[in-house]
Amino acid sequence: MTILYTAQWVIPVAGVPIQDGAVAVQDGKILTLGPESEVRARLARFGNLETVALGNAAICPGFVNVHAHLELTALRGRLEDLSFFDWIRTLTDLRGAWMQAEDLELSAQWGVVEAIRAGITTLADTETSGAGFRALCAGGLRGIAYQEVFGPDPMQAKKSLAGLKRRIEAQRPAETDLVRLGVSPHAVYSVSALLFRLVIEYAERQGLPVAIHCAESQAEDDFLRTGQGPFAEFLRSRGIGWTPPRVSAIRYLSDLNVLRVKPLLIHAVRATEEDIGLLTFHGARVAHCPKSNAKFGHGIAPVSRMRQRGVRVGLGTDSVASNNVCDLLDEGRFAQLLSRATQGDGQMLPAAALLQWMTLDGACVLGLDDQIGTLEVGKDADLVGISLVGPHLEPVYDPVATVTTAATGRDVVLTVVKGRVVYDGKRVLTLDEEQLRDRLRALAGRLHPSLASIR
């Protein structure tokens, strides 16, 4: 079956927008695209042709979210106005004491529903339970599920690695052509130097991609440079010794030879010029999560300098427990405005570059740019339809500018992953939204009174 998607605009990212355009999809691949009249002429020999007409809308590549925490979706709005350290501690206590395995599964699936409705077709998740991996598979999304490992005590490093191996080996047979596994030694304040080395060696042997929270906060910087602050005090309270290396987080990872695997470094807010040079030299990649960074008061990552120096940077929403929405259009617009404000350049990241950041650049960061990120013949048919109808969208002079400056995830009317429609503009087709919503509300009712006792 060949399916023809038509719209007022087709935005390939790899080329100029096509007015009254069409994208033909066959066997999960893009067969052809162009002006609708021309595409139909090319497909005249196909007798069995189904048309999905979106009308006054734009079709563009699916959005690529390079960092999220699906299993935390149920905690949206429940961890507000806390310091970063207190947020982490409260989150850990709340999840450990009040959320069972089925709650994490529910939370992750609801996160996938939100992502699908926002036109996100590829999502890199960071998790501890495996719920995110299963939710990505069940929801029909493309992605990487990075399995987190913790262990600041070097005496426990081998035990922590063994636990990670068990989780990976249990899930590996369920990997698909869309969803694969990775590993994530959490952060420099929660993973010992020995555990970093062991996990990186394991990742290399198994061919697993690596993601690390890095250079995120002042507290992390104090931990590394002076051995002071809440993270250092927490380790001391547990009897774990810590001698600060007195360098930045990125330099510390470089000195441990962690950067040799070209990890995805999440946040990198406090990256210095020297750090950016290390990222460039090693080919490490960065997940930029501007809204989460801003919410915690961490600052603004120097992504303009990173991009200028050739570092591959993708956009991530982080968890909705810290953002509070999974909407890459909203995230990209916020990133653009921050960059313009801090650089004093109102022409920085024009519309076409911003849309590329949300699509192709994210695909490059995850090593998927040969499959997705643009609408091109032969690539997988990951695409999204965005309505251009509404008082906040009209008039439309430039469809790319309208999408990037005015549209949000709520304007998405179609989400397709490798040719499979997962959202038809009315409902998600791969998961039972109504059942999930009812269960989520019941879970929230249980979590709400518990929060007061923890805080």
Automatic annotation (TrEMBL):
Protein name: Amidohydrolase family protein
Native source organism of the sequence: Chloracidobacterium validum
Pfam name, any one: Amidohydro_1
Keyword entries, A-Z: Hydrolase
InterPro entries membership: Amidohydro-rel, Metal-dep_hydrolase_composite, Metal_Hydrolase, MTA/SAH_deaminase
Keyword ATP-binding: no
Taxonomy, superkingdom: Bacteria
Every Amidohydrolase-related domain range: 59-422
